[in-house]
Amino acid sequence: SSRVVEIQSQMSERAVELLGLPEDRPCLLLDVGCGSGLSGDYISDEGHYWIGMDISPAMLDVALEREVEGDLLLTDVGHGIPFRPGMFDGCISISAVQWLCNADKKSHSPPKRLYRFFSTLYTALARGSRAVLQLYPENSEQLELITAQAMRAGFTGGMVVDYPNSTKAKKFFLCLFAGASGPLPKGLGTECADGEEIHQAKFTNERTRFRNAKGKSVKKSRDWILEKKERRRRQGKEVRADTKYTGRKRRPRF
Residue limits of the Methyltransferase type domain (predicted)? Predict the structure, then answer.
C-alpha cells in the first residue's frame, strides 16, 4: 500500500542521512534486504550507486520490472556478504536484519548467521564508513543478540532511536562504524528546541526540514529530471532526448 511505501522511503532517507556520506562525490552503497528497490530509488536520486541483496526472487522480479538503477543479487545474507574488501562506502538495510534471528531450518543458528553477516559486512565496508540498519526487534533479547554479534565482528556504534516516546513513530536504527568511529547521531524527537530532554515526544514531520538543505534539486523538478536522465545516459541506458517539454507540467484535462 502507498502508506507502507511512504514509511519505507522515509526510513531509507533517514538511514542514508545517518550514514553521513561525503557530499562531494558519488558513493557505492550496499542495500541489504533491498526488496523491490524502494530504498535504492532514494539512493539513486541522491546521486549515489548501489547494489541490492535480497532472499526473495519475487521481490527482485518487481525491482527488475521497475527498472531500478542498482545491481541486484539473489542471496541469503546469513551466508555472508560476497564482495571484495573495502568495496562499499556504506550499507543500509530497512526492516530486514531481524529476520536473521529466526531459525527457519534445523541447521540455522541465529548467532552464527548474524556473526557471519556482520563479519563479512565489516570486511566489505571501506574503513571509516558506516552501516545503518533499521530493524523491528521482537524484544530486547533480540536487540542484544544482534548488537552483540555486530560488536564481536569489530563494529563500534549502537542504537539510534527516533521518537522513543511515540508508539507509532518509534524507529530503531543500528548505527555501526567500521574502523574510525564518531559520536553516535542523536535520535529524532529526543529533545526540545531549548535542549531539554522530552518525555512526551510529539510526532512532527521533522523530515521536511532537511529536504534540500544540501542544495539538491527538488524532486520531480525539471533539473531533477535532467540530472536523472544524464545519470542514466552515463550508465549507457537508452534515454529520450531532452526537449523544451521535459519536466513541464501537463495541462489539466476537462
Answer: 30-106
